[in-house]
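REVIEWER CHECKLIST
Item 1: Sequence provided? yes
Item 2: Single chain? yes
Item 3: Sequence as submitted:
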Amino acid sequence: MPKHRLLGIEEFRQYTPSHRLIQFLRDYFDEVEKSPEELPILDWGCGRGEDVLWLLENGYDAYGVEIDAEPVENGRPLFQELGYDPSRLHLIGEDGKTGFSDEYFYLIISDQVIEHIRYLEPVAEEMYRITKPGGLGYHQFPAHLRIKEVHLHMPFLQWLPKSRLRKALIAFYVQIGKEADWPELRSASHREKADTYYRYSI
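Item 4: Structure as written out by the authors:
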């Protein structure tokens, strides 16, 4: 998966956030009649920081938080290379806190993150704490009961418990060629692919 490798300039130059997010930001800043650099934005679950970096490059005051240190470390070198403070990407503490002061952000965004959170209440509480009064959250996530699991592109996968049954369905999809086609798995065996996809799914 991309988060396991360094974010490079060539890859980043081909990156664009979702069109829905871009339109939301345009509409929001038109409505509040402020310029993008005036209102801090936080990307919750930022990974390597592609959205944060794109926002910075387009004049926004953006930061990111993440629970996994590996993607953050894979994103920070490009921030430095492009002249941005790498510490704009933060790790969420073991206590679930971000380290930002109360009421710091006008906007908190996320893209396909919320569906991975087991305990939503403490996350919502921390988001609330660091959002200014009148601030907004914009969170994109797939419906649980949609037919295709959006990360692995395997139908009905997320409907099954994390068990041997789910792993068997993943193995079946790999066998018939219905999979995410991650570049790093192209030379892997069917079994290696199924094992990797299953671990990802849980």
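Item 5: Key structural point noted by reviewer: The longest strand covers residues 131-140.
Item 6: Recommendation: ____
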